[in-house]
From TrEMBL:
<dbReference type="InterPro" id="IPR017896">
    <property type="entry name" value="4Fe4S_Fe-S-bd"/>
</dbReference>
<keyword id="KW-0479">Metal-binding</keyword>
<dbReference type="GO" id="GO:0046872">
    <property type="term" value="F:metal ion binding"/>
</dbReference>
<feature type="domain" description="4Fe-4S ferredoxin-type">
    <location>
        <begin position="154"/>
        <end position="184"/>
    </location>
</feature>
<dbReference type="InterPro" id="IPR017900">
    <property type="entry name" value="4Fe4S_Fe_S_CS"/>
</dbReference>
<dbReference type="GO" id="GO:0051536">
    <property type="term" value="F:iron-sulfur cluster binding"/>
</dbReference>
<keyword id="KW-0408">Iron</keyword>
<protein>
    <submittedName>
        <fullName>4Fe-4S dicluster protein</fullName>
    </submittedName>
</protein>
<dbReference type="Pfam" id="PF13484">
    <property type="entry name" value="Fer4_16"/>
</dbReference>
<keyword id="KW-0411">Iron-sulfur</keyword>
Length: 236
């Protein structure tokens, strides 16, 4: 199966960035169920860029327009993952589209697997101090989805971390949750980067106060990252 053709097809479905991860880079990550990756060799990681104008409305907590945008972008990602999976299956290979935003374990805020970990392995972006995947084109202003497959797609290389000495997200986080620790590749656990419970507590408090919020992130670390808001054309 031609990797470039599949990527172009994904872009035609509305995704902004698409890369392929070699699943050997992700063996051992937590998945639900634990054998989720068995029988698969690649993951297609796809990102849709969020609207800069919408992200700029976030000022301390999510806004109604951000909540709506978040949900519409998730729907677009799920649709694109479904169509990419169908195209892979029609070429004779196995494909499993994973939902963009479905929490299976609410206490730990865990899904089937971390789309962010897949995106980092695929070279969509690096793992920022905020734990968000930071792309060179859109910063963390992206939402992600994953398709697992056994198609022999050419894998992409991960990117080097470019957070450097930046402390913008650490300073802006209303919960004081970001530890300002850098990583070359991937944090050993989310607790290495975040006081995770502080982030979860803050996000839940915000959600309880604002009925329109359906997101699991307050959005402040997305807005303040200096890699966001610098759009480049022909990003895919
Ligand atoms: S989502 Fe909000 S509380 Fe959580 S790390 Fe980002 S800025 Fe901090
Ligand atoms: S705000 Fe700075 S430190 Fe935080 S993720 Fe973005 S580049 Fe990295």
């Amino acid at each position: 199966m031609d990797t470039q053709q599949l990527k172009s097809f994904a872009v035609d479905q509305g995704v902004t960035l698409v890369r392929v991860a070699d699943l050997d880079r992700l063996r051992g990550i937590e998945t639900n169920p634990p054998d989720l990756l068995d029988g698969f060799t690649r993951a297609v990681s796809m990102a849709v860029a969020l609207s800069d104008a919408v992200i700029e409305t976030i000022d301390g907590w999510p806004t109604p327009i951000y909540a709506s945008h978040y949900s519409r972008v998730n729907a677009l990602l799920d649709e694109a993952a479904l169509k990419v999976s169908r195209a892979i299956e029609e070429a004779g290979f196995k494909a499993m589209p994973l939902p963009a935003s479905q929490v299976l374990d609410t206490a730990r805020n865990m899904s089937f697997l971390s789309h962010k970990a897949v995106a980092v392995a695929a070279g969509i972006g690096w793992q920022g101090k905020s734990l968000l995947t930071v792309s060179p084109q859109f910063g963390p202003r992206i939402r992600l989805v994953t398709v697992l497959t056994d198609a022999p797609l050419a894998p992409d290389e991960p990117l080097k971390n470019r957070c450097g000495s930046c402390t913008k997200c650490t300073e802006a986080c209303p919960a004081g949750a970001i530890r300002n620790v850098n990583t070359e590749t991937h944090y050993s656990s989310r607790h290495e980067a975040l006081h995770f419970e502080r982030c979860v507590h803050h996000v839940r408090e915000v959600c309880a106060k604002m009925e329109h919020i359906g997101s699991s992130i307050c959005g402040v670390c997305i807005r303040v990252c200096p890699w966001g808001g610098k759009r480049k054309k022909n990003a895919a």
